[in-house]
Design goal:
The chain is 49% helix and 13% strand. The chain is α/β, with parallel strands linked by helices and 406 residues long. The protein folds into three domains: 122 residues, Udp-n-acetylmuramoylalanyl-d-glutamate--2,6- Diaminopimelate Ligase, Chain: A, domain 1, CATH 3.40.1390; 160 residues, Reverse transcriptase/Diguanylate cyclase domain (Alpha-Beta Plaits), CATH 3.30.70.270; 90 residues, PucR C-terminal helix-turn-helix domain (Arc Repressor Mutant, subunit A, Orthogonal Bundle). It has a five-stranded mixed sheet, with helices on both faces. The chain has a five-stranded mixed sheet with strand order 7-8-6-9-10, with helices on both faces. Helix 9 links the parallel strand 9 and strand 10. Helix 10 crosses helix 15 and helix 12 packs across helix 13. Belongs to the CdaR family. This is Purine catabolism regulatory protein.
Length: 406
Amino acid sequence: MSILVKDILKLSTLKNMELIAGDSGIEKCIEWIYVSECLEDPLEGIKWLQGGEIVIITGVGIRKDISVLTKLIEGISEKNGVGLIINIGKYIKEVPSQAIEIADRLGMPLLTLPWEVKLVEVSKEISNAVILARIEEKFMNDFLNNILFSQMDFAVDIKAKANYFGYNLQGKCYICIIKIDGIKKIQQSKNVYDEISISRTKLKLRKIVQDILEKYSLKVPIIDNDNEIIFLNRSEENSANRLEKALREVQEIIIKRIDGISVNIGIGNSYEDLSMMRQSFSEAKMVIESLKYEETNNEIRKYNDIGVYGLIFSIQNKDVLSNYYKQILGPIIEKPKKDKEISSIRILDTYLSENCNLSVAAEKLYLHRNTLTYRIKKIEESLKCDLHNFEDCLKIKMALYIGNVL
C-alpha cells in the first residue's frame, strides 16, 4: 500500500501534527521525506527535489522574511513535492495567512509540528512507514499477480507470509474485480493525454478502494490492472456482509468524485485452494463482461447471478455460437428498412424481456400496441415459431443472449 499525506497524520509520533492548509492535496503519494535547511538561501535546498517528497523545515533560514515561505510553497509545488511540514516555535512562530492561502490555492498540504517534536523522530517514522509500505505492497502485488497471471509454487506457505503483513487468507477466498470505465475519456476531455496523469488518477482510485475496505476491517491483497482494481477476499459470512457495504460505498464515492465514470463490480466463486483463484478471477471477469453486454452501469453482481452468460462464456468455439444464432434468428437479422424503424431483433428482445406483455413492451419501444402486435406476428411468421410456446421462447432468448456476446 502507498503512503499518502493523510496517512502520516495517523502515525504515533505525529499525533500533534496539524493540517492547516491544502487539504485538497492530502491524497498525494509520499515517495520520500526531505529536510530542507539552508541558511544562506532557503530556496536553494528545494532545487534538488525530484517529485513526491514531503519537505520539512524549521525556518532557520527564513526567520522573519515570511515572503520566502510563500516562495518555498510555490517552489515545492513546481517541483511536484507533495507537502510541507513546518516546525513551529523558535524561528517561525505561526504560519501567515498569505502562506495558507497559497497552499490552499495550489492544493499543497501545509502541516505544522510543535517545536518540542524532534525532527529526527519525524523523519525516521515517515521513512520507515514509506519503506514498510513499499515492501508490503511489493510482496502482496507479486503474490496476487503470481496466483492470477503466472506460475506459483503453492507448496510454499504463502498464507503464513501474508499473515505477517496482517492479511488473513484462511478458509475459502474469492476474487473481486472493480471495473472503472471512462477514465481516459474524462482525461481527454480535460486535454490531459499523458500516461502519468492517468496513472495518478488510477492510484487515487485504488487508494479510495483500499481505504474504504480497511474502514470496514477488510485488509486484502489488492492490485490494479488497466482500468480494473482486483483484490482477494475471504468468503466467511461476516466478511462478505461487510464487503457488500464497502463496495456500495466505493461506488458512491468514486462516482461522486469523478463525474461521468461508471463502476461495475464482479465477484467470482469462492474456493479453499488458492490455486483456484484463477478460476475465481475468470468468473469475476465473466460477470464484468455480462454487465457490459447488458449495458448495465454501477452494478454489483456475483458469478452465480449471471445465469446463461456463464454457459455461453464457457463455450470456446465461437463458430458454434454464431451458427446457433444464425440458425434461430437468421431470417430477422437485418438492419431496419427505414432510418426510424425499430429492428425486429430489438422488438423481440424487449417483448421477451417483458415476459410477452404487449402493453409494457409497446410502452418501452414507443410503439402503439396494435403496431407491436402486427410486428410480433410478422416475426413469428419469419421465424416459424409461436411466442406463446415456452420451448420456442427459450430457444430465441438463448439466441438473443448469444447475439449480445457475439
